[in-house]
Amino acid sequence: MEAGAPxxxxxxxxxxxxxxxxxxxxxxxxxxxxxxxxxQQRGGRGVRAVRRRQRHPPDLLPNGRYRAWxxxxxxxxxxxxxxQVALGNHTWSHPDLTTLGDAEVAExxxxxxxxxxxxxxxxTPFFRPPFGARDERTDRIAADLGxxxxxxxxxxxxxNRVLTGExxxxxxxxxxxxxxxxxxxxxxxxxxAVYGQLLELIAERGLTTVTLADVWSTRR
Length: 220
Ligand SMILES: [Zn+2]
Fold this sequence. Notes:
Elements: H1 14-26, H2 44-53, H3 68-71, H4 73-81, H5 102-120, E1 126-127, H6 136-144, E2 149-150, E3 155-156, H7 165-175, E4 182-183, H8 190-193, H9 195-204, H10 212-216
Parallel strand pairs: 1-2, 3-4
The chain binds zinc ion.
């Protein structure tokens, strides 16, 4: 999920968005905590909470092998269609791509791309390599498969394990600031329990959420 981008008039800052995009895309090598835990098959409750409570929900990066994405597709699809949620490809099964050969990397990306197309009707330009593990080779394969924009992060809920609500809120207080892409796990229950408090924190700090598509000014 993404949160904490600066408040600015929509559409008036394409240059800034592009600059930010480059910085965000290029800075990922140092991008903090990686989420080592594999995404698990849950999240229906989280999807419903997001839909109910936020006008700009987080961006979502499905791994197609987890069937919850398909099971909740009918809930998600209106948010995708309206542009409230941007989707990104996060590979089919969440491997460290730098350990795989070219054909396996391509298959991980292609299979998930086709899943996103058939399930949500979108061709996303965004690709997030699992664990932020990437190099020129994996970036090129992603680009060849229709994902020229590598979307990394510079903040985190630190929820690669299941946190208490207070721990997650402490991470949010640490990371929610302007021009920050905060990554978190929709499949752990904690975030749904403190979602309202996260939104309050965003409002208190004068921040607003944007989608990846807003930031990169491209089709979703
Ligand atoms: Zn991940």
